[in-house]
Amino acid sequence: QFVLEEYDKAAEVLPLQITDLSWYGRVTKGVVLAAKARFLLYMASPLFNGCSLYQGMQNKDGELLFPQSPDLEKWQKAADAAKAVIDLGIYDLVRNTAETDPFKRAIRSYMGVTLEKWNKEVIWGQWQTDGMFIVVRCNPPKFCKTGYGGYCPSIRLVDTYPMAASGRFPVTGYNADGSPVIDPKSGYVEDGFKDSYKHPLDTFLLVKAHNSCVGRDARFYASVFPNGFYWINQYKGIKQVTFFTGGSSSYLESGDCVKVGYLWRRPLDPALNTESGSWGTVFWPYFRLAEIYLDYAEACNEKPERNETEALKYINLVRERSGLNALETAYPEVKGNKDLLRMLIQKERMVELAF
Description:
Helix 1 (2-13) packs antiparallel against helix 2 and helix 9 (308-321) runs parallel beside helix 11. The strands form 4 sheets. The protein has a two-stranded antiparallel ribbon with strand order 1-8. It is an alpha+beta fold. The chain has helices spanning 2-13, 29-44, 73-86, 102-115, 132-138, 155-160, 218-223, 289-302, 308-321, 327-330, 338-352, and strands at 122-128, 171-174, 180-182, 193-197, 207-210, 224-226, 262-264, 282-288. The protein contains 11 helices and 8 strands.
């Protein structure tokens, strides 16, 4: 309660926007309201809201540290807090307007979140002037002059990116042996290769792409760099990156290697020539509007007076930016199904907020 009161006091007196250059980076009303929205979402979450793990835990004075039973009204407070940020009306999702191809536009729009500094989606962010500390870990070892690898997505996350055509998440779970349980309605193909495949954004040579990397959501191509694709820029020539033993980015004696078959692409600017030491900057959004939309959708789905219409509206705004169809179109069975919508919101958060 004390923290919430402090948020409210600060929000009353802080400006909507910083206009004085010397004050850039300082906290605004939107920053405080975004922090409050995330705070209340955690507060409503089953992890803290009556979680059995914390039953009976006390401090030295014998006071209980966590709520002993769930209070579903906390979801209403979380929904109100997220909507307060939205209703400020000063933030908007990044949307590329220069690209004419719809799918390329979706990829570039999502890339703009981290590559367009101080864009309208960012509520609070950090501009790191030396990008090397992140970029070098996303550059393939041995392949790049300075590439350490190490920043790799898990296979579970890679498996979560939706299919572009159906809008459905391809993998619903895993068998005991680790093999994926595939949604047959998604259009996902687990095995085999597609000859003469062209990355939807990069205009390099055609590749023999594994079918799991074909036909995915725009955010997949903005975020993930798979084995066998051509590197994102041509400063070292048009070269193919392969992570297996004997490949162009195979195991090094130093231990730098990519074990999962994927690197993170998302923080990388294809225009930078890192071979000559041009590392650029890294723009890191701590709060952005897409997160608030997903917070609001989650809270609307969970609150006592459930509002499925609002939940679907705001998750669909995030999906639409990535070129996906509406969630209820991809999953007609989601209507009236609170548990399914919860699971789909969690998957949407995984890919939208990845890295």
